[in-house]
Amino acid sequence: MRAIVQRVLSASVEVEGRVVSEIGPGLLVLVGIRDSDADSDADYICRKVLNMRLFPNEKTGKAWDQSVMQRQFGVLLVSQFTLYGILKGNKPDFHVAMPPQEAKPFYACLVEKFRKAYTADLVKDGIFGAMMKVNLVNDGPVTMQLDSSAAQDSSQPRSAACELVEETE
């Protein structure tokens, strides 16, 4: 799984001339799902995005000190299969991306993971498969790329589906 994480002052997603999601300060996260991604990839991306220290601490003035959760800022997730595009000559090929019929429930599960791990009301998303206009005011600019496959131990067995772990009380 690949995520392009941008620190923003604001971001929104528009579909067919209508704003479907928006956040104020926080993180815009473009998410590409690879055909071989598993639950562990979704867990990794969720954990890393929510804990990345991309924000300054306003009390101490220390840069790169606080996460989106510490600041209680928004997270806007946008599915983007083109993150796994490979040029063949001058034409993009997306065979490495997970097929849409598999990627849609996987992406929905990822969004739910973010909502369960953080504050549900602060996690927004676009519309999977729609032609979206993504608007943002980049802050910095700060843009980071995360790849779950680079962090995963290939000797670990990978379950194929994204699974939500139910919390027990």
Automatic annotation (TrEMBL):
Catalytic activity: a D-aminoacyl-tRNA + H2O = a tRNA + a D-alpha-amino acid + H(+); glycyl-tRNA(Ala) + H2O = tRNA(Ala) + glycine + H(+)
Location(s), subcellular: Cytoplasm
Molecular function GO terms recorded: D-tyrosyl-tRNA(Tyr) deacylase activity; tRNA binding
InterPro entries registered for this protein in UniProt: Daa-tRNA_deacyls_DTD, DTD-like_sf
EC number in record: 3.1.1.96
Recorded GO CC terms: cytoplasm
Keyword tRNA-binding: yes
Keywords assigned: Cytoplasm, Hydrolase, RNA-binding, tRNA-binding
Chain segments carrying region Disordered: 148-169
Biased composition annotated in UniProt, kind: Low complexity: 148-161
Name this polypeptide is given: D-aminoacyl-tRNA deacylase
